Inverse folding.
């Protein structure tokens, strides 16, 4: 997959809830293959004090219509500015970047655990994995019902479970408190997760204790996104690795968790 | 067709646009984005005698019109470079230059001797200006006697083109440039990053694991331009200019101030196609100004 710098047309910028926006972008040329876990580095134009691009993992790709969807959560000035972009503008992107999740094999029974904007690659993987929906379980955690995004169009691809810290949707508590996680974890052949560090570490440690396959998608401050600046390193068992090119997806066995 | 060629010491560069060390890996990382053979040269990632893990995360802070980094020369060492990387990049049709770092003069010499054996490495850039390592690095580049000592030692064992990369974190960069010229440097490149710092007001903690780091990007361009102009006027050897170059106009400004070649660095992080855009922009500028050769541009500042 050749990486390119390309201007995409912003078709849609839809606010999903307080902090999350869905951006749909159209490519002028056929979209290169993008797999779940890979990301796009987006230039934020005309924004004071924003110099570097911002990385966003891909939520969905429509190859027929040449569109890419990103879930953008407001975390700071850069992401905020991007959510203010109006449809019709051109947005410079570099794509596809990073390594994707290992796609499951036909006999796998998988659980995908997403938190915050980390839900994006989980939904993308659920849609793309090609498994019988019976074998795809998606667990999504958030603070409150108002932080959850609508996943209606992804429901056909798996069984969905929710947790909220205040109990306003699904089980009250964290994803690691949900019965599908606490009681059935050993039924899964692969665990995939993307979300806040603490959540992923909690899941990763339990996976390690139970000797289960577990891949996590890390997030880090990046300058380039394609492995030349060496700024976004994670201290792994094999030394410093770039989250942008050696990851963002890592097997927990390789991390110092 | 204008002639963009320029000679530095014994080396003919097809054009004056080079990639700066630490911003382009070994070239191959960005080969999807641009035709590396169009470039004048590539200065590959800073190399040391032994493997270095570099500094702890966080290593980067975005700043107004720039960024701070504190990578700390993470690299797998010269043996790995020679065995694994060199064979992959040696046939790229551009000058591949290795950025050389050490904690001691002995390190610099030992590393240089290894690189002197490599046929397809026609030059080294002696880095006496890295602000992100505890020992060596910038320490050699901030006083004339220490800069002279390391260049003198390396010159004895290196027969090809010797470029010395200077630190801006000095009172008089022209004096350092003269010092390294006196010991046989064939060219000087400048500027390395400026020592800076970022603080998180909420946590009252430094943003970088090392507290201080090196500032790069357009924020440092006026300082870099001033230093290139000062050094151009102080030495006879050619100057390679860098510091916040984002487009062809920036590159041309450096050449007018006295740079024979320029290096593109932090701009690559924003758009790795910028270096070839600059080559094309420089050619258009020269046509527009009816210049036949880049030498007409170099040091053409009219005061």
């Amino acid at each position: 997959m050749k990486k390119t710098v390309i201007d995409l047309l912003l078709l849609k910028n839809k606010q999903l809830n307080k902090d999350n926006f869905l951006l749909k972008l159209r490519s002028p040329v056929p979209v290169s293959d993008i797999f779940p876990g890979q990301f796009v580095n987006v230039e934020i134009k005309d924004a004071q004090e924003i110099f570097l691009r911002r990385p966003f993992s891909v939520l969905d790709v429509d190859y027929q219509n040449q569109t890419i969807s990103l879930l953008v959560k407001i975390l700071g000035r850069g992401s905020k500015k991007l959510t203010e972009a109006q449809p019709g503008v051109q947005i410079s992107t570099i794509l596809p970047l990073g390594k994707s999740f290992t796609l499951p094999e036909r006999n796998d029974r998988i659980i995908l655990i997403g938190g915050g904007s980390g839900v994006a690659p989980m939904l993308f993987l659920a849609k793309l994995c090609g498994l019988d929906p019976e074998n795809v379980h998606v667990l999504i955690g958030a603070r409150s019902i108002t932080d959850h995004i609508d996943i209606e169009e992804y429901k056909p691809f798996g069984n969905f479970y929710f947790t909220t810290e205040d109990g306003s949707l699904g089980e009250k508590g964290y994803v690691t408190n949900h019965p599908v996680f606490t009681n059935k974890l050993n039924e899964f052949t692969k665990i995939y997760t993307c979300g806040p560090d603490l959540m992923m570490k909690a899941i990763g440690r339990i996976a390690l204790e139970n000797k289960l396959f577990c891949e996590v998608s890390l997030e880090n401050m990046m300058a380039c996104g394609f492995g030349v600046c060496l700024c976004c390193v994670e201290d792994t068992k094999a030394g410093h690795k770039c989250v942008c090119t050696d990851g963002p997806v890592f097997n927990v066995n390789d991390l110092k968790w | 067709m204008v002639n963009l060629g320029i000679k530095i010491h014994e080396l003919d560069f097809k054009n004056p646009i080079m990639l700066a060390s630490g911003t382009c890996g070994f070239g191959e990382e960005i080969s999807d984005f641009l035709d590396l053979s169009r470039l004048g040269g590539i200065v590959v990632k800073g190399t040391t005698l032994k493997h270095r893990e570099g500094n702890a995360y966080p290593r980067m802070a975005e700043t107004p019109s720039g960024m701070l980094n504190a990578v700390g020369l993470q690299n797998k060492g010269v043996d790995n470079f020679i065995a694994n990387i060199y064979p992959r990049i040696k046939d790229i049709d551009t000058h591949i230059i290795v950025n050389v770092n050490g904690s001691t003069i002995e390190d610099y010499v030992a590393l240089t001797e290894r690189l002197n054996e490599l046929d397809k490495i026609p030059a080294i850039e002696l880095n006496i200006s890295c602000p992100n390592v505890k020992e060596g690095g910038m320490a050699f580049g901030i006083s004339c006697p220490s800069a002279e000592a390391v260049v003198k030692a390396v010159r004895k064992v290196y027969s090809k083109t010797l470029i010395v990369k200077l630190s801006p974190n000095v009172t008089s960069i022209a004096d350092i440039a003269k010092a390294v010229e006196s010991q046989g440097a064939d060219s000087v490149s400048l500027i390395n990053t400026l020592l800076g710092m970022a603080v998180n007001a909420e946590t009252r903690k430094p943003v970088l694991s090392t507290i201080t780091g090196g500032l790069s990007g357009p924020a440092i361009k006026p300082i870099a331009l001033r230093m290139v102009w000062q050094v151009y006027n102080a030495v006879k050897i050619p100057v390679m200019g860098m510091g916040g170059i984002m487009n062809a106009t920036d590159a041309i400004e450096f050449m007018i101030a006295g740079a024979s070649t320029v290096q593109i660095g932090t701009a690559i992080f924003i758009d790795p196609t910028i270096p070839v855009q600059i080559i094309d922009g420089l050619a258009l500028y020269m046509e527009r100004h009816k210049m036949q050769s880049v030498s007409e541009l170099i040091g053409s500042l009219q005061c």
Summary: Chain A has two domains: 4-97, 110-217. Chain A has four helices and 15 strands. The radius of gyration of chain A is 18 Å.
